[in-house]
Amino acid sequence: FEPINPDRRAARLARAADLWDLRRIARRRTPRAAFDYVDGAAGRELTARRTREAFESVELLPRILHGTATADLSTSIAGAPSALPFGIAPTGFTRMMHAEGETGGARAAAAAGIPFTLSTMGTRSIEEVAEAAPDGRRWFQLYLWRDRERSLDLLRRAQAAGYDTLLVTVDTPVAGQRLRDTRNGMVIPPRLTLGTVLDASVRPEWWFNFLTTDPLKFASLSASSADLGTLINTMFDPTLSFADLEWIRSVWPGRLFVKGVLTGEDARKSMDAGADGLVVSNHGGRQLDKAPVSLRALAEVRTAAGPDVEIVLDSGVMGGSDVVAALCAGADFVLIGRAYLYGLMAGGQQGVERAIELIAAELRVTMQLMGAATVSDLGPGMMRTPWGAE
Ligand code: FNR
pLDDT by residue (tens digit) across 148-195? Predict the structure, then answer.
């Protein structure tokens, strides 16, 4: 039994023409509970669905006879360059999706010249990710622990390991209700049951990788198997407030973005508390079901924050034309969560590289078809939306 045949994997990934193909490969190769943890969202998954529908409903306006021989996809965000106008969002428990986990994502991001964000719930340490891709650009995401010393320790380590930007996630005072996880009986660390054994027999590669790369890291998260909601709710502070944000600001010297802003008022308050930028995000629809669609919320946040504040958008981005839509709607930069994880599940680091490559290729051709030579050419007036200008 050979767990990974690189040639076959490369051929499989090369045949994926878009992110939806990668998602199909991912589903075949990953145990159901892990795939559903990624693919699913909160409640009835209304926000997740509406978030995708918003991207599908836009019309991008081509400018005819405005040809460009090439499109320059590079930009700058949080004080440094990025080869592409998108980066990798923070995701927890990533080694459950693929044994390489965060190091696969960080190496792929570094190779592409884009930022990689490590989550507080990451399954590789701050230092491991830095060592895996020393030349890569690193961002760190913070969930505020009940125990402030633990938060401080993470921030100091992130700073020492060269993470230049902090995303403070504010939409998770408690964990959203992920019904697929409940239905799948999903626990961390995974428990051996008849179901998981059967799953193992059809996905030997995933299990082989998982079991040979210390699953104890998961065990250390919790004394006994716990569902994700319980795990998150016992660790993080549900009383998180703007005063806490000010405290985080006072102890983090680098750039600070508040992740999970969806209204103009919260944008203003976040800036007043000392944020350098904002991440307009509904957490991929995984927290408050019926929360606003981030693409639609962008206009209000942009108006409140003003033209000079850097705004990053995430949630629902599955291709280059979605990146274009976000930039036309007023974002400076985009993060991909599931799109990255589908790539990771489909083929580790190589799969993430394929995901980035597919998004970049679609971005390039979309920009050229629209007559946009640079990322800054994309803006208002190049997209029509059914919701008009909000
Ligand atoms: C997330 N997200 C997330 N966000 C965060 O701030 N900390 C975290 O630990 C996680 N964990 C996490 C796990 C998984 C499996 C997913 C899919 C998402 C949210 C993430 O950063 C981002 O906001 C969304 O993924 C964006 O939506 P899309 O791109 O997945 O549609």
Answer: 999 999 999 999 999 999 999 999 999 999 999 999 988 776 666 777
Q: Among all chains, which residue has been given the structure tokens 């402030």?
A: 148
Q: Is 181 helix (H, G, I), strand (E, B) or coil?
A: helix
pTM, two decimals, is 0.95
- Residue 375 covered by a domain: no
Q: Is residue 245 part of a domain?
A: yes
Query: Three-state DSSP class for 225?
Result: coil
- Show the tokens assigned to 275: 């944020």
What ipTM goes with this model? Answer: 1.00
* Cβ proximity of 38 and 286 under 8 Å: no
8 A C-beta contact, residue 9 and residue 26:
no
Q: Which two tokens stand for residue 19?
A: 């992110």
267 lines ligand 1 (CB under 6 A): no
Q: Is 384 inside a domain boundary?
A: no
Any catalytic annotation for residue 98?
Answer: no
Q: Quote the ligand 1 centre to 285 CA distance (angstroms).
A: 9
Domain count, the chain: 1
Q: Whose CA is nearest to atom 29 of ligand 1?
A: 337
Instruction: Look up the domain containing 158 and give its range.
Output: 6-58+76-358
Ligand 1 proximity of 359 Cβ (cutoff 6 Å): no
CA nearest ligand 1 atom 13, residue: 91
What pLDDT digit, counting tens, does each position of 320-348 carry?
Answer: 999 999 999 999 999 999 999 999 999 99
Catalytic residue among 12, 283, 338, 354: 283
